[in-house]
Write a structure and sequence with these properties.
There is one protein chain. This protein starts with 7 loop residues before the first helix and ends with a strand. The chain has helices at about 10-35, 40-55, 60-70, 75-110, 120-185, 190-210, 220-235, 260-270, 315-330; strands spanning about 215, 240-245, 255, 280-290, 290-300, 305, 305-310, 335-340, 340-350. Strands 2-4-5-9-8 form a five-stranded mixed sheet. Helix content is about 65%, strand content about 15%. It is built from nine helices and nine strands. Helix 2 (about 40-55) packs across helix 4, helix 5 runs antiparallel to helix 6 (about 190-210) and helix 6 (about 190-210) packs antiparallel against helix 7 (about 220-235).
């Protein structure tokens, strides 16, 4: 909630609601204590409603005062200045509230009381402290909401900066690995190397167009994955098979840009490249329990003596885990496991639209 967007009309609605609750409280108090006199709905409702509607009428001014003192240094001079200001405003509020009540009373009874009657003097002295407390409650709420809003904004900016830093790590990492693949083909098959460079240029242009976006449609992420795998397919040819199964109803779900690319890199580097016969990389995406998306990447994995060999996957996988945690907190899962000669990476995150 942004307190600056809180308009005067909202303050009036809130004042009426608070007034209604306090009037009801007064009546319940009257019933419980049995004071021995008739409860005057007119007098109670008028006094309370005028009091809070008056605060609502000057709400914009209170916002300005709250922001003014919020920006100033917290020292003795400014504290005393604010206390003096609050006493003056509370006094003016109480004077105006009393006189407005007198006019409403006159409209109802035809009798206008003098301003300096004993009753008004008592109401003024007793009500001044009440107005003083009400002023500080309102100012405290304004400042509290303002500080909270500012904190939330700073957290969003911090998260965006962290996500941007994580995303920026991908570019040199991805570029280095891809260029390394191209380099390995230059002497062996220059035409394939040239084709890979052309594909790389296309992919980098696509990535740079989305560079400042932390979230992109799942469909776009899959297009990046396909483009990267097409580059690797040139190198592996018959040793690499691809299998994509993407449900149509998750195509437009938002997800972090380039999230899957490090996982695909690892599948190539630690899986397909180390198997003489190559293997299959399978990418599946579907809804999970209606509210989340599950993406599962499976690749063939080299075996040693009948068991899958453990490999350290390094910065790429750590980057994926950090980005998911940063973006979704505890609502996401990131799991990797070996099942026979298969290595499976499974990611789930909440469904949200762009």
């Amino acid at each position: 909630m942004n307190i600056r967007s809180f308009k005067t009309k909202h303050a009036f609605v809130l004042a009426i609601l608070v007034s209604g609750l306090l009037i009801l409280r007064q009546y319940i108090d009257y019933l419980i204590n049995d004071y021995g006199y008739d409860f005057s709905w007119f007098a109670v409702a008028t006094r309370i409603t005028i009091n809070y509607l008056l605060w609502a009428a000057i709400f914009k001014g209170l916002l300005g005062i709250a922001f003014y003192f919020q920006r100033r240094q917290t020292d003795l001079k400014n504290i005393l200045l604010h206390i003096t200001t609050s006493i003056m405003i509370a006094g003016a509020h109480r004077l105006i509230a009393i006189r407005l009540y007198d006019f409403v009373y006159y409209a109802n009874t035809g009798f206008l009381r003098g301003f300096f009657t004993p009753g008004n003097k008592v109401a003024m002295s007793a009500g001044l402290f009440s107005s003083f407390l009400e002023y500080w409650v309102i100012i405290s709420l304004i400042m509290g909401v303002s500080y909270y809003t500012r904190y939330q904004l700073q957290q969003k900016e911090l998260n965006a900066a962290k996500l941007n830093a994580l995303q920026m790590q991908l570019h040199p990492h991805f570029l280095f690995n891809t260029l390394n693949s191209i380099t390995s083909l230059i002497d062996i098959d220059p035409k394939k190397a040239q084709k890979m460079l052309t594909q790389l240029g296309f992919l980098m242009r696509e990535i740079l167009e989305q560079d400042k976006k932390h979230l992109i449609p799942l469909k776009s992420e899959m297009e990046y994955v396909r483009a990267y795998l097409e580059i690797e397919y040139i190198r592996f040819q018959d040793r690499l098979s691809l299998d994509f199964v993407i449900d149509e109803d998750v195509n437009n779900v938002a997800m972090p840009a380039l999230l899957l690319q490090p996982i695909i890199e690892n599948a190539i580097k630690h899986g397909i490249a180390k198997r003489p016969e190559g293997g299959v990389i399978s990418v599946q995406a579907s809804r999970a329990n209606g509210a989340k998306v599950t993406i599962e990447i499976t690749n063939d994995y080299p075996n040693l003596n009948g068991s899958a060999k453990s490999e350290g996957y390094g910065i790429g996988t750590a980057n994926v885990a950090k980005r998911l945690q940063q973006m979704y907190g505890e609502e996401q899962t990131f799991q990797q496991r070996k099942e026979g000669s298969k290595y499976i990476t499974q990611i789930t995150f909440p469904i949200q639209s762009l």
